[in-house]
Amino acid sequence: MRRVLACALWLASGLPVAAHHSGAAEFDSTKKIDLTGVVTKVEWTNPHAHFYMDVKDSSGTVTNWNLELASPNVLIRNGWHRNSIKAGDTVSVTGIRAKDRPDFGSAAVITFPDGHKLTFLSGEEPAK
To answer: Which residues lie across from 68 on neighbouring strands?
Structure first.
């Protein structure tokens, strides 16, 4: 039995392992972003949920930002639900910018016009 178990473990060690990227590898924590715009799409997918929002700059140019969140499983465990943020919502986002893409970031705090917030690791906070 030990031989069979040892053989099974040895064979399993050769299987490919799905690696997860490091946030520090993708995002630059020194490049803070503060954006306000309208959510255009939400992707409740693994390994990370994403939402997209149209942000207008001071010259009137609109850029569609891709903002990463935690995995849906982590978000649900922290009080989020599939419709916590949805297309058509106007929101302000604080987060950090990606190292190599100007329109990609990681959202830390999402604030709605009524003042309630969604944070990366917690569900909705009541308006103050």
So the answer is: 50, 106
In whole angstroms, give the CA distance from residue 109 to residue 95.
Answer: 7
pTM here is 0.76
What share of residues in the chain are helix, strand, coil (percent, to 5)? 15, 45, 40
93 vs 40: CA distance, rounded Å = 14
Which regions of the chain does DSSP assign to beta strands (E)? 27-43, 50-56, 62-68, 90-98, 104-111, 117-119, 122-125
Predicted pLDDT at 85: 96
Helix (H, G, I), strand (E, B) or coil at 10: helix
DSSP reduced 3-state for 80: coil
- Could you tell me the pLDDT band of residue 78, with boundaries at 50, 70 and 90? confident
CB-CB contact of 96 with 107 (8 Å): no
Compute the Cα dihedral for 116, 101, 39, 33 and give only its sign: positive
> Which among 45, 41, 47 is positioned nearest to 19, based on CA atoms?
47
DSSP 126: P
